[in-house]
Design goal:
This protein is mainly alpha-helical. 77% of the residues lie in helices and 0% in strands. The protein is extended and about 55 Å long.
């Protein structure tokens, strides 16, 4: 087994352990309201961080290219209550169109 697969296996195992700690330690008790509101915001914040790094990230510098208008159009589509899959398709189409024209 290569080093990469060992790392993948370890990360997977650690993820399982971390996900299991909540139910094991809390049991059937509910989270306090303040903590629950923080947990509810965790997934959107992590997703936004991934979107930003994938949109603007380069090797070692900030990149401005066709991805930015695609993400902007997707943000507007989401704001107008379009389903996420529709926003993704629109973003991909706008990005592809700009890359084809440029």
């Amino acid at each position: 087994m290569s080093d990469a697969w060992i790392v993948v296996a370890l990360v997977g195992l650690i993820t399982i352990v971390l996900k299991a700690t909540g139910p094991v330690f809390l049991g059937k008790r509910a989270l306090p309201a303040r903590l629950r509101s923080m947990v509810d915001l965790l997934a959107p914040v992590m997703l936004m961080g991934l979107v930003v790094t994938q949109t603007f990230g380069g090797d070692q510098d900030l990149e401005v290219d066709a991805r930015i208008p695609g993400v902007a159009v997707a943000a507007v589509a989401i704001w107008l209550r379009a389903p996420v899959i529709v926003a993704m398709v629109i973003a991909g189409a706008v990005t592809a169109l700009i890359r084809a024209v440029a």
